[in-house]
Each structure stands twice: as structure tokens, then as C-alpha cells.
Design goal:
elongated
Length: 173
């Protein structure tokens, strides 16, 4: 399988995983949970689409710490084979409430470099729009996926049940 074919397969897995996340963990998203909680649940769903390892905050390249030019890194989610960089499939950086940072963009660029140490096939930015104010205004949670190197987002939304919205609204700021 070529790198491009692997990237296409990984895109499909990420989209299906995010759909499951919206369906099964809507409350987690709606209440403004931290990105680490969200990434954990997404990683669980990604495991069903891959024979490879799916790890959160994984900081190793073989036995050495992962690092880029300006320091050590812990990508939010990786699909890879531990101890074998020939199977580095996907690296994902996520933000809940906030926009993707410059640091996240630098990490993904370094992880995807063809001549680099890691050579992942696909880089993904996940933005979860779940700030309390927006959730209460729209009654929805929105996920936006952007593939590294593309500005076209893949977006999906889900309505939040009224009982959860009432509970969110009842909480103090």
C-alpha cells in the first residue's frame, strides 16, 4: 500500500471515529470536557479501524523521546506500530474550544516530513467547538477536521438533548 493509499484509509478511519464520538460521547463533548478526555474516546474508536497501535500522548520513537527542533513532543493521537517507523500512519493534534496553535502546526509538519525521522502518512487537526457559550447559543457541538496541507475543513455537528442543555445552563460560569 502506498503512502497516499494509507493516508486515504486513515482519513476514512478518523471520519468514522469522529462520527462515533459524536454519537456515543455527545455529553462529554457538550459539557466542555478537556481535549485529553476527548482524544481518549476518539482513540478507542480508532482502534476498531486499524490493526496498528493507537496511542494518546505517546512520546517515544523506538526507545528515545520524540522531539522536533525546539523540544520534546507528545502528539495527541497516533496510529502507528510501536518500535517500527515503517508503519507510522496518522498523527492528530486536537483542541477543544481553542484554535489550533502554531506549535501544533509545527509538530505536525515535523512528523510528516518525507525525509524526516517520523514520516507519518497523514496529519490531522481536530477542533471541537464546545465552549459553554457557543453550546448554549446553538444547542450543538461541532467537530472540524482539517488535513495537514489543506484549508478545507471536514465538519460534522450534533444536536445536544434539551435535558443536557438545561443542566449546562444551570451551572454558574
Amino acid at each position: 500500500m502506498t503512502t497516499e493509499q494509507r493516508a486515504v484509509a486513515a482519513k476514512g478511519a478518523v471520519i468514522r471515529g469522529c462520527r462515533k464520538l459524536l454519537k456515543r460521547d455527545l455529553m462529554l463533548l457538550a459539557i466542555g470536557a478537556h481535549e485529553q478526555s476527548i482524544c481518549h474516546r476518539l482513540a478507542v474508536y480508532l482502534e476498531s479501524f486499524s490493526e496498528l497501535n493507537v496511542d494518546c500522548e505517546y512520546n517515544r520513537q523506538r526507545v528515545h523521546p520524540k522531539s522536533i527542533r525546539d523540544g520534546r513532543i507528545k502528539p495527541d493521537i497516533l496510529i502507528h506500530k510501536r518500535m517500527d517507523s515503517r508503519f507510522n500512519l496518522m498523527v492528530l493534534e486536537a483542541k477543544a474550544g481553542a484554535e489550533t496553535s502554531t506549535r501544533d502546526k509545527q509538530k505536525l509538519s515535523a512528523m510528516l516530513e518525507v525525509q524526516g525521522m517520523y514520516r507519518y502518512a497523514l496529519g490531522v487537526y481536530l477542533h471541537v467547538e464546545n465552549k459553554r457559550k457557543r453550546v448554549l447559543q446553538t444547542g450543538r457541538v461541532k467537530l472540524s477536521l482539517r488535513w495537514h496541507g489543506s484549508d478545507d475543513p471536514y465538519e460534522m455537528e450534533s444536536d445536544i438533548p434539551a435535558n443536557i442543555l438545561r443542566e449546562i445552563a444551570a451551572q454558574p460560569d
